[in-house]
Design goal:
Elements lengths: L6 E7 L2 E6 L2 E6 L19 E4 L7 E4 L7 E5 L2 E5 L14 H12 L6 E5 L5 H9 L2 E6 L2 H13 L7 E5 L2 H11 L5 E4 L4 E3 L5 E3 H16 L5 E6 L6 H11 L6 E11 L5 E12 L2
Parallel strand pairs: 3-4, 8-9, 8-11, 9-10, 11-14
Antiparallel strand pairs: 1-2, 2-3, 4-5, 6-7, 12-13, 14-16, 15-16
């Protein structure tokens, strides 16, 4: 998890969330906070930026004069660039930090250099975590701006020369080509969106395409699979659903430890805000 000096969920409720990233407090829409009461009304007056409108690229930020165009926060020796985006995000989802720490542990304790495939890799949190453990990483995302952002994060984290292969491409097309090439991986990380498009207009729908993608990932890792991490924020999918899909696609995954559950962030006063789900598997050592 993030150190409290770097990130903190201050409050949530009435369809919004109040987060502090480093020195700056942001007030944003939050689907899971709809219909819930706020815990600390007074705290909301301290926001440095407020996102209004639909959380789909159609809204806008209203920020104070003191908020920079970009700033950074740190986690376990790595540095992440943050900035306000048109979608109401900042380039980092703090609930994933617990999984980044898990990835670093899996790689570091493997006893050999692992090759890791990071799909829907966004701004590179999982990529940096794998590299920190000593892995070679292939980072794949359909959005060029996200890949460039991830590269800046590795540079800020003193990983500019790390063994990372950067790919801007439709995830399914890339995985299919890797299979044809006979390439193999020890670990796979996936954080797929509910819906999206590839750089050439390829359509991604999680409910339609995730099972077949997992089957292809199983083929890429069948020779020496060490870990798999699958997370998502799709409404209506439960941790048990993710676990079932993962087991069905990868032959049951019986020779390891599977963990599934909800991701969450905790406020200063101890309230839990749901923030997606994840299932992860690691081979018995």
């Amino acid at each position: 998890m993030f150190d409290k000096s770097q990130y903190e969920l201050i409050d949530f409720g009435q369809g919004r969330r109040l987060d502090r990233f480093g020195s700056y407090v942001l007030d944003r829409p939050c689907q899971v906070a709809k219909g819930l009461p706020r815990g600390n009304d007074a705290a909301w007056t301290d926001a440095d930026a407020v996102y209004t409108g639909a959380n789909s690229g159609e809204g806008n930020w209203r920020s104070s004069a003191g908020l920079p165009l970009s700033w950074t926060i740190a986690h376990n020796g790595s540095t992440f660039e943050l900035k306000l985006t048109d979608f109401g995000h900042v380039g980092l989802f703090p609930e994933h930090a617990v999984n980044w720490d898990w990835i670093t542990h899996q790689v570091r304790s493997a006893g050999q250099t692992l090759k890791v495939l990071n799909l829907f890799a966004y701004t590179g949190g999982a990529t940096i975590a794998a590299v920190a453990g000593g892995a070679e990483v292939v980072h794949v995302d359909a959005a060029q701006n996200a890949v460039l952002w991830a590269r800046r994060n590795t540079q800020a984290s003193d990983m500019a020369n790390a063994p990372i292969r950067w790919i801007t491409e439709d995830v399914r097309k890339f995985v299919q080509r890797e299979i044809r090439r006979g390439n193999k991986y020890h670990g796979v990380v996936l954080d797929p969106p509910s819906y999206g498009h590839g750089p050439k207009g390829e359509v991604w729908k999680l409910d339609e395409h995730l099972p077949s993608l997992l089957e292809m990932c199983a083929e890429l890792t069948v020779a020496d699979r060490r870990f798999v991490l699958l997370s998502c924020h799709t409404t209506g999918i439960e941790p048990a659903d993710l676990e079932r899909m993962l087991r069905d696609s990868m032959g049951g995954l019986r020779n390891g430890v599977m963990e599934s559950g909800g991701l969450a962030l905790q406020t200063i006063d101890g309230r839990q805000m749901p923030a997606g789900i994840a299932t992860r598997w690691a081979v018995n050592r």
